[in-house]
């Protein structure tokens, strides 16, 4: 789509205009020449200066950015509109075969009954797909994987080798993304993907959302317990341990070898490598490498223990 044509469709003011054709939309980090991307707020400006995107949709004119910009009043609302321009909703074709003829399945793989596999998906050597599983389009499942019953993989999910996904888990569902207009919430379509690297195990009834534009990534060797929620564009690096009922908001980053106790909540934070997050902790800011935190809001675990001891002593003194 021509940049000036796009500007007319979204009612945007053009800055640094040049003759330019936009081929796709992408994240600031992953954008390539020919892509357009979004600067939703001030904290993304520095990333934009380093981005390879050819053009930007932004909330204000950024003088340091010497590339074409489309200035809009409501960037999140515009994000939803632009996604639909490049990826319009299409009616789902009728499914005539449970397993698409365009699917590539290695001879040593096993497929259980009542499983549906859509177009252009591949399944590797010695992988076991149990019964009642739904696998979407353009998925890739590696070698020696085990997918237990009632798992759902949406389109564009990539699963590495030696991965185990337990019953009832959902991989690639839409993230919780909306914009507000006139007192109502409107959906932002998610067109990204999920990448699960080698040697990952995902417990029962876990949910991993696709990225809005980019990827949600689970790094190699990480283990995820039952009933964990991982939101869009979150990146969990290698060899992390995440206990049951942990919840992540969008765009969290968990570095290597982090352990997170049950029912902790992680809110758009960066957690440094080799850190420990105690159960029920509420993480609302960056955690440095090799930290041990607990409480809400989470801080140093030993300070939290001292605080609790002081509070309990005060209560005991005042007790009748």
> Strands across the major sheet, in which order?
7-10-13-16-21-24-27-30-33-35-36
CATH superfamily of the largest domain: Hexapeptide repeat proteins
Number of strands: 36
User: What count of domains describes the coordinates?
Assistant: 2
What's the CATH topology name of the largest domain? UDP N-Acetylglucosamine Acyltransferase, domain 1
Radius of gyration: 23 Å
Shape: flat
Notes on the structure:
By secondary structure, the chain is an alpha/beta fold. It folds into two domains: 3-86, MurE/MurF, N-terminal domain (Udp-n-acetylmuramoylalanyl-d-glutamate--2,6- Diaminopimelate Ligase, Chain: A, domain 1); 104-302, Hexapeptide repeat proteins (UDP N-Acetylglucosamine Acyltransferase, domain 1, 3 Solenoid), CATH 2.160.10. It has four helices and 36 strands. The chain has helices at residues 3-10, 45-50, 75-86, 301-318; strands spanning 13-15, 24-25, 35-39, 55-58, 69-71, 104-105, 110-111, 116-117, 122-123, 128-129, 134-135, 140-141, 146-147, 152-153, 157-159, 164-165, 170-173, 178-181, 184-187, 193-196, 201-202, 207-209, 215-218, 223-224, 229-230, 235-236, 241-242, 247-248, 253-254, 259-260, 265-266, 270-271, 276-277, 282-283, 292-294, 299-300. The strands form five sheets. Strands 7-10-13-16-21-24-27-30-33-35-36 form an eleven-stranded mixed β-sheet. A nine-stranded parallel β-sheet has the order 6-9-12-15-20-23-26-29-32, with no helix packed on it. A nine-stranded parallel β-sheet has the order 8-11-14-17-22-25-28-31-34, with no helix packed on it. Strand 3, helix 2 and strand 4 (55-58) form a beta-alpha-beta unit.
